[in-house]
Amino acid sequence: MSAESPHMAQGLVSSEAASGSGKRGAEQFGELLPETRRALFRRLAVGQAEGRAPSMTGAVVRGGQMAWTGARDSSASDGAGEVDVQYRIGSITKTFVAVLVMRLRDEGLLTLEDRLGEHLSGSPDPDVTIAQLLSHSSGLAAEARGPWWERTPGSLRQRPGDLFGENPRRLPAGRRFHYSNPAYALLGSLVEQKRGGQPWGEVLRREVLEPLGMRRTSLLPQAPYADGWAVHPWADVLLPEPAEDTGLMGPAGQLWSTVEDLGRWAAFLTHGDSRVLGAATLAEMRTPAVPPEGMEWDDGFGLGIQLARRNGRLLFGHSGSMPGFLASLWIDAAEDVAGIALTNCTSGPAISAIAADLAGIVADREPRIPEPWRPLAGPLDDDLLALTGPWYWGAHPYVLRLRADRGLEISLMSGPGGRASRFRAESDGTWTGLDGYFAGETLRVVRDEADGSVSHLDLGTFVFTRGPYAPAGPVPGGVDAEGWRGR
């Protein structure tokens, strides 16, 4: 069975998430062109056919709305191929667990620098930090001890100590990326510990799934759902795969979901939702947290979020696999578009490439139209306006610009490079760097003690003056008394 839905009217971004962010959806993007919809369906069909997948379903989310869904099925006997059918999403589950952990951090119940042993008794490696677990830089073993955990009952591993052998850590902590499934089992146990012993799945349902309207995402399959299959590598025949409840390892890959629910998840990961997690924290999660492997990186990792560079675009999201299933979700934040692909076979389809291509087809054929320029809202602060314009770090000309919410932005006046950064206004009259070289640094306006006029800007001890090396300027080390001269 094949099916395509060119546009689904319902928005996926909640009113809480969209408030203050401008109009999205039909006004901003409009419906996809017929040629784009055909290209999307063809990509899905090629993926299903060349990957020899029993079924495949895909979706594109644009501007917080479901813009397209499609499905291709070799047989409708098990209901697979419909967009409301559940598939197992494997390690995409980790993004949900990471959001639960970041909620704990934002509530002040822990910090990312805390050692696991401070919060979870019986930890097999109490010295690794929560940030290291989230970013797969803990050095812990890649897989759980014992038989293949994805195909065996979770009852074989009932306590955190059952996940590892005598040497849980394979590499020095914090030094390099090393993917660890058991690390997320520990994070799930951490969530349970900080939520008074409630199962992590129940915490997820109450704190995340219900607020976001994700009613078709669950720990165990709920009809209709696809059966998982292995496809013989040399013959077009199938073998059923088991669908075990992995128990303690569940936070590493237990969830089942649909493309419609994952569309809601993609919209949330892009725009945030005040009831679950704010946009600033989500942006923090997709910031690279570990050094990339190799000279030119194509793949990286943040805090529970995979990063990728594909065809000149920076994507974030996650892929997943469990016996009988493959899943992928990739988001292009610059274009506000996400691609989702799910299939019910253990191997074969290049599911990650398919999801990325779905997003790329829309971004290439119908690039995002920028929001209209609008003047700043609210009364104008003349003192802030007076700070804008040219400033000089030594002889380097920079320009300071005023942005929304009293924010500032500094960048080199012309040409590429330079130490550009955006700054958030603080209640004490300073600004904090949000990105670039000055991320986390403090920007202060220094005034003359005699008349209160602005003397210079102090940015992490960098002194910015209104003129380049003015003799009377407050330049560290002083300026030659004769000033500038010709040869």
UniProtKB/TrEMBL annotation:
Enzyme class at the top of the EC tree: hydrolase
InterPro entries noted in UniProt: AmpC-like (IPR050491), Beta-lactam-related (IPR001466), Beta-lactam/transpept-like (IPR012338), DUF7586 (IPR056008)
Pfam families reported for this sequence: Beta-lactamase (PF00144), DUF7586 (PF24491)
Region (Disordered): 1-27
The entry's keywords: Carboxypeptidase, Hydrolase, Protease
Residue stretches making up the Beta-lactamase-related domain: 46-358
Location of the DUF7586 domain: 381-466
EC code(s) of this entry: 3.4.16.4
Top-level lineage group: Bacteria
Keyword Oxidoreductase: no
This protein's record includes keyword Protease: yes
GO MF term set: serine-type D-Ala-D-Ala carboxypeptidase activity
Name of this chain's protein: D-alanyl-D-alanine carboxypeptidase
Species of origin: Streptomyces rimosus subsp. rimosus
